[in-house]
Amino acid sequence: MKIAQNKTSSQSNSTVERALTILEFIASHQGPVGVGEIAAELELAKSTTHRILEALKNKQFIEQIETTEKYDIGIKAIEVGMSGLTNWNIVDISAPYLKQLASDLNETAFLAVYDQGEIVYVYKAEGSHAVTTNAQLGTRKPIHCTALGKAIVSTFYVEEVERILGEKNMDKFTERTITTKQPYFDELSKVRQCGYAMDDEEVEIGLTCFAVPIFNYTGQAIAAISVAGPTERVLSNKEDIIKALKNVNTYVSARLGFVPAMRKSVES
């Protein structure tokens, strides 16, 4: 009986390890991935891979794209990740820097993460001249009109951005909102060249925002930080804001284990 129990325990541990390995592979992959590719890359039997994928899908840790039958990270994995994010890591690491940023510039500083084609605001620090915006904690915003969104997806492959825009559309919020793909890709190219993104009154007239991406130890942009305020005031202080944002980017990314040399070009 004891031998049988040990064997069952060993098999269970092996299944758990495989499931976690598959989940990590999907999470780190740029875009949805098929069962055949997963099995080949991880050197697993296709039948075993499919069985584990179905279990992960049933628990919502992954989702299957109907049109392609490929797999992508699911809502449950994001919820678990967001829970960990809120309690530790990037929020705790970034908070002191954002508070200092808001204090030095007297504007509002934000931290946002990417979540299934949108950004989610997870931290905010207000300076003495901060103005009220509709970007509250937990608020979701599109990637095509926010500086935070542009900063993050400027590091994505073009095909991934194409997919996101196709799924989420490019709704118009103001007369300055970019609503077609080519001008948006031109904008992302500028972001990569200069190292920062801009919301040029594209969400709210009278409100301008600058943002930079935050990288982790894998070289992946996992978040972005921004400074927002009244257009005239922010533009007049543009150089100081961008310099301060880039400094915070350096500190926070380094705390997350980022080494600049690991960044790979995503230019098409």
Would you spell out the secondary-structure blueprint of this structure?
Blueprint: H1 2-28, H2 35-42, H3 46-58, E1 62-64, E2 71-73, H4 75-87, H5 90-105, E3 108-115, E4 118-125, E5 140-142, H6 147-153, H7 158-168, H8 181-194, E6 197-200, E7 207-215, E8 221-230, H9 231-236, H10 238-255
Antiparallel strand pairs: 1-2, 3-4, 3-8, 4-5, 6-7, 7-8
Explain the overall architecture.
The protein has 10 helices and 8 strands. It has 268 residues and is an alpha+beta fold. It has a 6-stranded antiparallel beta sheet, sandwiched between helices. It has a two-stranded antiparallel ribbon with strand order 1-2.
Task: Summarize the model shown.
With 268 residues, the chain is of the alpha+beta class.
Question: Main traits of this protein?
Answer:
268 residues, alpha+beta, six-stranded antiparallel sheet, 8 strands, 50% helix, globular, disordered N terminus, disordered C terminus
What proportion of the residues is helical, as a percent range?
40-55%
Low-confidence stretches: 1-12, 264-268
Q: Which word captures the global form?
A: globular
Strand order of the largest sheet: 5-4-3-8-7-6
Helix/sheet category = alpha+beta
